[in-house]
Amino acid sequence: MSAFPGPLLDLLAKAGDRPVFEHGERVVGADELLSLIRRATGGLHARGIAPGDGVGVLLGVTPEAFAAIVAAHVTGARVVGVRPGLAAPQVRHLLGDTKAAIVDAPHEIPVPAIPIGDLIAAPETDAAPAGRATDVARVIHTSGSTGDPKGCEQTYAAMGAAWNLHPDRWPPAIRELARHLERYLVFGTLSSQVMLEYGLLTLAAGGRMVAAAPVREGPFHAVAIERHRATASVITVPGLYRMRARLQTLGALLVSGSPADPARLRQALDVLGPVVFHGYGQTETGMIAMQTPAGIAERPESVGEPAVEAEVRDGELFVRTPAQARGYRGDPDETKDVFVDGWVRTRDLARIDPDGYLYLLGRARDVIIVNANIQYAGPIERVLAAQPNVAEAYVVGAPDERTGEAVHAFVVPTEGGNVDAELLRAAVRDRLGPASVPSTVTTIGEVPVAPSGKPDKRALLRS
């Protein structure tokens, strides 16, 4: 099995001048992108980056950003992506054990910054992949149960085992999706797991990545898809709900990040046409299942047939795939709990019907998915409970048209204490970032109690 990113470099070398990346008026061919990767590799070598070193990535969506990420993998580094919107303490946590970070704008970070322009200015060098199979290739972070981002470690062997660069490994739903990847819209950051993995799939399918320009009017996806004549894009559930009309060029809209209401999925098919794909996956595993437009029309409650090994044990879904993470960085207890005998506990409640279709029934963990990012209730509750005049704090999630789900807080004040909701929100924002900030803060006299004697947090939303 070829070490990552070997298959990608081979693909680019064979593609010649075929367009693979579009950024504004600039169209970059495979040969130019390969040259950028080789130059970025030389720049990293000149700065002493070696196999096993941690390299942070704070980059947007440009050909140079893509080249820098690939080059870091060529050196065998441990690539740590930093997504926008994190609080300063969280960024420091992510970069705490890295050697340097590649940036395309000034940032206050605790490690040396490598401006991407300086990196790309280096002479070309040999781009032979140096990553060792058991080395960590990348650390993909979710919001952690302690409040600090939790990093999933994926090895170079696991990245090499992934399906995206190998058409012979594509599951049926991915094979259908790949037919529509002529112009795949990319936005946000290429260090995003979903954005990068479907970008690699696009290149393997013969398409190009198209960087979205900022949108200042109307819903982002509707405007960006039309403006860039995109044939495919990833979208969150709230973004899907804001789509109002068919778009001429669009062939595939991949809904990802959180569960979607079956009725709204069918409605989206009616409005947008047979372009809606519904993906289900986790940071720890990558894609688990995908429902095609035809599948949504027939079984909108299902997320499709699993594309990986899947078992339901006592109501909880376990999956296994060669590309899964090996564990959580610096957290052996959580690793032992979730990664069990080669399987991953998804902590999602599920069933598989006799025809092999997967249905999600709920969660076995206390999380809220805001704009496709997992937020743990526990850290938010602890920040709130530590504030003056707050005796107890409880956090629950509820569906939200704008963000998929939203955080709602309920606080019991101390005797005679007055609670300032805005100060509580500010405390959460400063410690955990804006995605964790409660949409509402409600003062209550006491928390409802379930028959088990534990707080009945769901009852708070009904009160």
UniProtKB/TrEMBL annotation:
<protein>
    <submittedName>
        <fullName>AMP-dependent synthetase</fullName>
    </submittedName>
</protein>
<dbReference type="InterPro" id="IPR045851">
    <property type="entry name" value="AMP-bd_C_sf"/>
</dbReference>
<dbReference type="InterPro" id="IPR042099">
    <property type="entry name" value="ANL_N_sf"/>
</dbReference>
<dbReference type="Pfam" id="PF13193">
    <property type="entry name" value="AMP-binding_C"/>
</dbReference>
<dbReference type="InterPro" id="IPR020845">
    <property type="entry name" value="AMP-binding_CS"/>
</dbReference>
<dbReference type="GO" id="GO:0016878">
    <property type="term" value="F:acid-thiol ligase activity"/>
</dbReference>
<feature type="domain" description="AMP-binding enzyme C-terminal">
    <location>
        <begin position="380"/>
        <end position="454"/>
    </location>
</feature>
<dbReference type="Pfam" id="PF00501">
    <property type="entry name" value="AMP-binding"/>
</dbReference>
<feature type="domain" description="AMP-dependent synthetase/ligase">
    <location>
        <begin position="14"/>
        <end position="328"/>
    </location>
</feature>
<dbReference type="InterPro" id="IPR000873">
    <property type="entry name" value="AMP-dep_synth/lig_dom"/>
</dbReference>
<dbReference type="InterPro" id="IPR025110">
    <property type="entry name" value="AMP-bd_C"/>
</dbReference>
<dbReference type="InterPro" id="IPR050237">
    <property type="entry name" value="ATP-dep_AMP-bd_enzyme"/>
</dbReference>
